[in-house]
Amino acid sequence: MKKHDLLKDGNNIIRVLEIQFDKILIIDCIKKTMPVWVESSALDSFSGCTDEVLNEVTNFAVNAIDALDADQRKAMYDRYTLIAPSLPFIADERMRSKVIGSTAIEHNISKQTIRSYLCLYLAYMNITALASRKRLDDDAELTQDEKNIRWALNKFFYTTKKQSLMTAYTMMLKEKYCDSMDVLLNAYPSFYQFRYFYRKTKKMQNFYISRDGLKSYQRNNRPLIGDGIQSFAPAIGVGMLDSTVCDIYLINDAGNLVGRPILTACIDAYSGLCCGYVLSWAGGVYSLRGLILNIIADKAAWCKQFGIPMNAEDWSCDKLPATLVTDMGSEYKSENFEQIAELGVKVINLPSYRPELKGMVEKFFDVIQATYKKHLKGKGVIEPDYQERGAHDYRKDACMTMTDFEKIIIHCIIYYNSQRIVENFPYTEAMIAANVKPYASCIWNWGKSQMGANLIEVGTKELILTLLPRTTGKFSRFGLKVNKMRYHCDGYTEQYLKGGEATVAYNPEDVTSVWLLENGIYAKFTIIESRFEGKDLTAVQSLQIAQRDIAKGASQDNLQAQINLARHIEAIAGSVRSSADVSVKNIQDNRKREQRKHHRNYMKGAKP
């Protein structure tokens, strides 16, 4: 037997702390009471034991120091500091008690707490036994009442019905603490216990999602901790696309109310420049096609069409951004729009309800609308109360046409690009040295000359053909058949004879031509059926459907006519007497006689 040995006798486990002649100082490792002196003969029935057996019996795992976190290590050393002065006096009960008392007064802690730490350390002889224990959040450590409270919170409180805590508590008592006659039992948790458990286990993320839904959480409550735009737009060439319905009602040239126009825009994520826009009555892929064409257009010439003079440096974008960032709108996910990738453009679809990832275009809409609305009050502009009961009908104020409003939008964009101060832009040393002014156009013009600028030059015709919808055409002897119409182009004789399928781009607004896409090259085919020239696809399909309906309507009459024809032929054939012996001689003479017999002078009865 040696000092610090563990001994076991049945369910008892002790640790030897001191040995003096026939007396031994021991501590009960199970009860963890203060050390006592016993006669050595009292330990004759004990045998050796290991730390692993002690840990298993007490269900107390002593971890390595490296496995503890910072809070656990701090608690461990703080507690050891409390018991360290008394460790040299373990064998002297009087001095030990005196040191524990003085330590308790010095640290303003109870003597019993110090004794419990001391016994814990002596039982395991390991400083890590003093580390604080983290309670595991599992069912084994929950009482039945706590399980019932958790059940009630999940069933009645964390739901989209948004019940109050008191309602959830009442429903818990009804379901879990009433007898078969719905009479409340004598023992049940109080509301304060219910509320305490709720506050202790409450997680804000679970609270928002369960009561308001994931969409609301993503839009209104999710932590906004990303670096945002600068994380994926370190230089110009990342365009952000989006659409919004303008807060104004417009009329047509005849003075009739039309409604609210749709503004679609592309904003450079790095500089904030508006690369292009389109103002239209229809959204979707149609507006995107107009937007992409406006991005590569000469902006000075575009503004000149509206009688608006502009310096080229204020809006010098005539190339496509190499990366287009969009949301999960159906028009952006369409195969038609993704064809733009053939030009080398990368399309990134952001997840739903992540407006901060395309904050530049969201900010653009806010600034543009706020800019014109304050000057157009009483002219069809919508105020925040337009959906409230009894609010003014702003449709009656409409007095501007689309042309008038587009001029205003252009002026607002020119201001946004060239005169609005871009606040909090992350200026670099090179930008400061170049004295770049804090305007989007100046940042854009400077960025075009820097390494990393990623813009793609593309022609208008190539862009239009790329954005056209596509379908599968079939070659045959009758030409290239597309949308149930036939087309022709010189030099494709072999394809007509061999047959096969091909990818074809077509213009839904004019079916006169289609373009065969082959190895990235567009070959123009012209329609064979001239009656369809100049018509749009909808009109052609209407004609084709009408023709099929007419033919379908006459099919029954056609069947009846075939039946009648068969009946007449059979009647005539049945009345003829068949001859079993027909002579085959002198056929030419017979033919001449019959010709003379049936000859008719057609001019004899003609009028002069």
Reconstruct the topology from this structure.
Layout: E1 6-9, E2 12-20, E3 23-28, E4 36-39, E5 47-49, H1 51-58, H2 70-83, H3 93-107, H4 111-124, H5 144-157, H6 165-176, H7 191-201, H8 204-212, H9 214-221, E6 238-245, E7 250-251, E8 257-259, E9 262-268, E10 274-280, H10 284-295, H11 299-305, E11 320-321, E12 323-326, H12 330-333, H13 335-338, E13 346-349, H14 359-373, H15 402-418, H16 429-433, H17 440-448, E14 455-456, H18 460-467, E15 470-476, E16 479-482, E17 485-488, H19 493-498, E18 500-506, E19 513-518, E20 521-527, H20 537-553, H21 555-575, H22 587-597
Parallel strand pairs: 6-12, 12-13
Antiparallel strand pairs: 1-2, 1-5, 2-3, 3-4, 6-9, 7-8, 9-10, 11-14, 15-16, 15-18, 16-17, 17-20, 18-19, 19-20
Q: Summed up, what is this model?
A:
With 608 residues, the chain is an alpha+beta fold. The chain folds into 4 domains: 5-130, no CATH class; 144-221; 230-456, Ribonuclease H-like superfamily/Ribonuclease H (Nucleotidyltransferase, domain 5); 468-540, no CATH class. Strands 15-16-17-20-19-18 form a 6-stranded antiparallel beta barrel. A 5-stranded antiparallel beta sheet has the order 4-3-2-1-5.
Mean pLDDT: 87
The shape, in one word, is: elongated
| The number of domains | 4
The number of distinct β-strands equals 20
Number of helices: 22
Helix share, percent: 25-40%
N→C terminal distance: 154 Å
Strand order of the largest sheet: 15-16-17-20-19-18
User: Which runs of at least 5 residues are low in confidence (pLDDT < 50)?
Assistant: none
Strand content: 15-25%
Largest sheet: 6 strands, antiparallel, barrel
Instruction: Please name the CATH architecture of the largest domain.
Output: 2-Layer Sandwich
CATH structural class of the largest domain: Alpha Beta
- Report Rg: 46 Å
CATH homologous superfamily title of the largest domain: Ribonuclease H-like superfamily/Ribonuclease H
User: Which fold name corresponds to the CATH topology of the largest domain?
Assistant: Nucleotidyltransferase, domain 5
Structural class, by secondary structure, is alpha+beta
